[in-house]
């Protein structure tokens, strides 16, 4: 493997945005050779992800958090493409960075500098509004979690109720704008603080913006139903389940239109485009099922992931491996 060309893609996103769940279910799909494209992918030393997949499918458990205070070993694939110019072998590493990186501290600053040296990025956005921070282990959690994803501490001990006043952490946020603000500030931090340290003025690295829980859009507990959401799912139905550069672009346009409903007032495409040289696509997806409709109890859901492999294939394409060429 030492002589093989190497690619690295970094996974960024808020806590509970779905990075690890996506990694596990896309790993499962790749392992089953469920991707009819001009490339072969084989995972290397994947015992940890075998266990995560078993937890999701057999035990109906959501994945645990990415450890916030240490570097995590990447998920590595050996890949072979076979385009018109001949066969190319290489190694692809996926680096899952903790969601706490979004909120910033000196250790995470060093992680971010390393992550930005990747060949491509997957940026996960959580459509579930709000978040709360565990008083015990300081881990950030999305608002729909009733217990800390790390230490299982109950949420109601931290929400400012009478029983916890004076002891609880201040909630990170309670509106759907919270993740938007944190992510927008994170992108600004990259521009203003990190790039100068890397002696760069901008990035020319492709970024896949992964809107990773679109089934939650159909749950009125998290989003008000409306014409824009219905039109979005109508567009996905018309585009179909096929995977090509054309269908990826069509889904991206449909998702970009929806961003003003999910995150009103945030010009995410413009902000990301200015930083990454307009090499940006939206990827609406769910590692669970479109029929799940935001169901939190995985035992009540028949797993049927939607459009989870596309961002990985697109990034490979954008880094010189034309997997859609045949």
**Proportion of helical residues:** 25-40%
The global form is globular
**Percent in strands:** 15-25%
Q: What is the residue-averaged pLDDT?
A: 76
Q: Structural class of the secondary structure composition?
A: alpha/beta
What's the number of helices? 8
The overall strand count is 9
Intertermini distance: 27 Å
Low-confidence stretches: 158-177
Cα radius of gyration in angstroms: 19 Å
Strand order of the largest sheet: 2-3-4-1-5-8-9
Description:
This protein is α/β, with parallel strands linked by helices and 326 residues long. The protein is built from eight helices and nine strands. The strands form two sheets. The chain has a seven-stranded mixed β-sheet with strand order 2-3-4-1-5-8-9, sandwiched between helices. A two-stranded antiparallel ribbon has the order 6-7. β6 (131-133) and β7 form a beta hairpin.
């Amino acid at each position: 493997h030492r002589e093989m060309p190497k690619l690295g893609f970094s996974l960024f996103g808020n806590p509970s945005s779905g990075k690890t769940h996506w990694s596990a279910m896309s790993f499962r799909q790749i392992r089953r050779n469920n991707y009819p494209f001009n490339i072969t992918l084989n995972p290397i030393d994947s015992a940890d992800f075998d266990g995560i997949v078993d937890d999701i499918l057999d035990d109906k458990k959501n994945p645990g958090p990415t450890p916030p205070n240490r570097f995590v070993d990447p998920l590595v694939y050996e890949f072979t493409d076979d385009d018109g110019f001949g066969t190319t072998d290489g190694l692809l590493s996926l680096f899952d960075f903790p969601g706490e990186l979004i909120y910033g501290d000196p250790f995470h600053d060093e992680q971010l500098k390393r992550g930005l040296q990747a060949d491509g990025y997957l940026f996960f956005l959580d459509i579930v509004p709000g978040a709360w921070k565990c008083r015990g282990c300081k881990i950030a959690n999305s608002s729909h979690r009733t217990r800390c994803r790390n230490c299982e501490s109950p949420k109601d001990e931290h929400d400012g109720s009478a029983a916890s006043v004076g002891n609880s952490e201040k909630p990170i946020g309670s509106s759907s704008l919270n993740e938007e603000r944190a992510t927008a500030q994170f992108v600004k931090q990259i521009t203003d603080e990190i790039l100068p340290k890397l002696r760069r003025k901008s990035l020319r690295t492709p970024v896949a913006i992964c809107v990773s829980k679109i089934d939650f859009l159909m749950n009125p507990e998290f989003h008000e139903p409306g014409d824009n959401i219905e039109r979005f799912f109508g567009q996905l139905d018309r585009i179909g389940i096929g995977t090509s550069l054309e269908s990826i672009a069509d889904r991206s346009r449909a998702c970009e239109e929806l961003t003003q409903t999910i995150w009103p007032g945030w010009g995410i495409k413009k902000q990301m485009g200015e930083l990454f040289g307009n090499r940006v696509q939206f990827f609406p997806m769910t590692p669970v099922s479109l029929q799940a409709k935001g169901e939190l109890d995985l035992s009540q859901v028949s797993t049927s992931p939607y459009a989870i492999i596309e961002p990985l294939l697109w990034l490979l394409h954008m880094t010189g491996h034309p997997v859609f060429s045949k």
